[in-house]
Amino acid sequence: MAKAGVTRTSLLVLLVVLFVKFCASDTGILNRKAAAGGRAVSEDGRYVIVFHAGGVFTMVHVFRFDENANLLKINGSLEVFHQAQKTISSYAEDPAAILSFVAPLLEKAIYAVPTNLQPETPVIFGAYDELYLLGEEKYEKILDVVRGLFSESPLLYKAEWVNILPAATQGAYLWESINYLMGNVGGDYSKTVAVLNQESASVQMAYAVSAKAAANAPKFPGGEEYITAHHIQSNNYYLYSHGYFPFGAYSVRTAILKYTNDSYTYCVTNGYNVQYNYYGEMYNVRAAPSGSSYEKCRANVLQALHLDATCYVENCTFDGAWNGGGGAGLEKIYLTNGFQNTGADVGITTHSKPSTDLRLLEYEKFAKVACGASTFEDAHNLFPSVPLFDLPYLCMDLVYVYTVLVDGFGIDPTKLVTAADSVPYGDSSMRIQWALGLALELISSNHTKMQDITNVFAPSRTFVQIV
Ligand SMILES: *[C@@H]1O[C@H](CO)[C@@H](O)[C@H](O)[C@H]1NC(C)=O
Ligand SMILES: *[C@@H]1O[C@H](CO)[C@@H](O)[C@H](O)[C@H]1NC(C)=O
Ligand SMILES: *[C@@H]1O[C@H](CO)[C@@H](O)[C@H](O)[C@H]1NC(C)=O
Ligand SMILES: *[C@@H]1O[C@H](CO)[C@@H](O)[C@H](O)[C@H]1NC(C)=O
Predict the structure, then answer these.
(1) Widest CA span of the chain, in angstroms?
(2) From atom 12 of ligand 2, which residue's Cα is the shortest distance away?
(3) Which residues of the chain have pLDDT under 70?
(4) Ligand showing the shortest atom-to-Cα distance for residue 234
(5) Where is the secretion signal located (predicted)?
(6) Predicted TM-score (pTM) of this structure
(7) Centre of ligand 1 from the C-alpha of residue 75, in Å
């Protein structure tokens, strides 16, 4: 009973929905003397421009900070934000065509920055990690088009500032954004909140650990760094962060469907029968004749999490990843993006206020209702807010959210956690977006020259000492 338009869903199209966040921000080098044009720099502040190229939207943020990395308004708002409903990954065969939407976004961002400050305003372009699936040759061609455009702009630009943002780094910058906006930065790491984020291709966990825990962190085969050092305003934090691929809202469907490619799945609505195309890989989606089942779907999801994967250290989450050892930085948990959006679709959370406190048991409760729906129409009547192209997968999606958080990350299902879209800030509120964290870190850098900052996309484990 696949509905028209639902068959042969291409992930390239579907992935888009979750990518509504971004941020951008400013640059560094504030001269104390009056800048060209006669305006004192301290009054103008420092600007940072951050592009977030996502799976549905390409977005640009302009942030402005004072000398102490406090956000300043630009023209009355906390950021200048523009977006185009285009994803760069659709242009693998004709990369130059991305200029039709990236160039106008750049123009709008430049317009927000006073002319005299443009040469010291960094412009960063972070693309979503799913771009990796195109292969290096293709995604580098796309990024090169951006590099060409930026190099001709009046802004401060470096080729390595245009790149794919790895999931773990994205998690760390989200952590910075939330904790900065909440006013937690400046206090002890134990006063900060942890972030669990779901994107279309990955899920991420980020939280602060003590300096001692950071120093004692285990070494991993392949040299993967789970702990990185971050300097925000004048404070140092060690962050555990890790990204799990393909465990995002859309990619995980393939990880689950893989096990039932030659048989039936108990995770989709009764009668559903399509092929799911994910970057050229085909997955058969055939509903079991008896319809969806919470218990049977959950068994399949548990299998996909690889809970018994080889764990090189104590304390693994799932898929063989280290959990960071836990601690005070993991006490308060914020759920963002897909986790929050899936909740809002079924009424566990809401977009009408910045955040909702809930227990993960709620996801389980609604998963049982969704898996119990006997037809597509039933499911639609029960959950009218769920987009029609996601509805056949609602049982799977809710079972997955519950299972990855409880069995994967090990969160007690009765613990109170917070799902959030935004954080109240001053007289307004700011959407939670990694771009702000990236901008903050650039602004807070010790480097006397912005141009010296190279590790924007892969923060290191130690703090940089500038001599
Ligand atoms: C400031 O806002 C006004 C009114 O919305 C707009 O016309 C103007 O272009 C904005 N200026 C900048 C620099 O963005
Ligand atoms: C699923 O089965 C189809 C044949 O029905 C095959 O073409 C496809 O490659 C299989 N997909 C995976 C991921 O195994
Ligand atoms: C594992 O967890 C225990 C208890 O939280 C902790 O004492 C230990 O340091 C952790 N080890 C690693 C490698 O995370
Ligand atoms: C900046 O310098 C201070 C003082 O030397 C140091 O404590 C801090 O770790 C440095 N921050 C970074 C990001 O290197």
Answers:
(1) 75
(2) 283
(3) 1-42, 465-467
(4) 4
(5) 1-25
(6) 0.89
(7) 6
Residue with CA at minimum distance from ligand 3 atom 7: 325
Q: What is the spatial distance between Cα 114 and Cα 132, in angstroms, rounded to a whole number?
A: 35
How far, CA to CA in Å, does 168 sit from each of 15, 100, 225? 19, 30, 10
User: How far is Cα 181 from Cα 202, in angstroms, rounded to an integer?
Assistant: 24
HSE-CB of 73 using CA atoms within 13 angstroms: 8
Q: What is the pLDDT of residue 219?
A: 84
Among 315, 316, 322, 331, say which to mutate for ligand 3: greatest number of ligand atoms within 8 Å of CB: 315
DSSP 221-233: GGG--SEEEEEET
Q: Which DSSP letter does residue 90 get?
A: G
Candidates 173, 180, 171, 197; CA nearest to 340 is: 197
pLDDT per residue as tens digits for the range 156-165 = 999 999 999 9
Question: 448 to each of 38, 70, 216, 457, how far by Cα in Å?
Answer: 23, 19, 31, 19
Task: Count each helix (H run) and each strand (E run) in the chain, helices first.
Answer: 13, 17
For 59-70, the pLDDT digits (tens) are 999 999 998 999
**Nearest of 326, 303, 313, 311 to residue 205 by alpha carbon:** 326
**Which residue type is seen at 177?**
S
Q: Which of 91, 77, 76, 96 is nearest to 23 (CA)?
A: 77
Exposure of 369 by Cβ count < 10 A (0-12 exposed, 13-18 middle, 19+ buried)?
middle
Residue 426 to residues 74, 182, 211: CA-CA distances in angstroms? 14, 10, 31
On whether the CB atoms of residues 274 and 8 are closer than 8 A, the answer is yes
Task: State both tokens at 357.
Answer: 């406190």
- Give the C-alpha separation, 124 to 49, whole Å: 6
Q: Which residues line the pocket of ligand 2, CB cutoff 6 A?
A: 258, 261, 281-284
What radius of gyration do the chain's Cα atoms show?
Answer: 22
Alpha-carbon distance of 373 to 35, in angstroms, equals: 65
Q: What size, in residues, is the chain? A: 467
What's 185's DSSP letter?
B
Is 231 close to ligand 4, i.e. is its CB under 6 Å away?
Answer: yes
Whole-number pLDDT of residue 16: 29
Tokens of 199: 């994107």
In angstroms, what is the span from residue 243 Cα to ligand 4's centroid? 26
Q: Ligand 1, atom 8: nearest CA belongs to which residue?
A: 75
- Nearest ligand 4 atom, CA 464: 14
Contacts of 200 (CB under 8 A, 6+ apart): 11, 14, 15, 16, 17, 18, 19, 55, 128, 130, 248, 249, 250, 251, 338
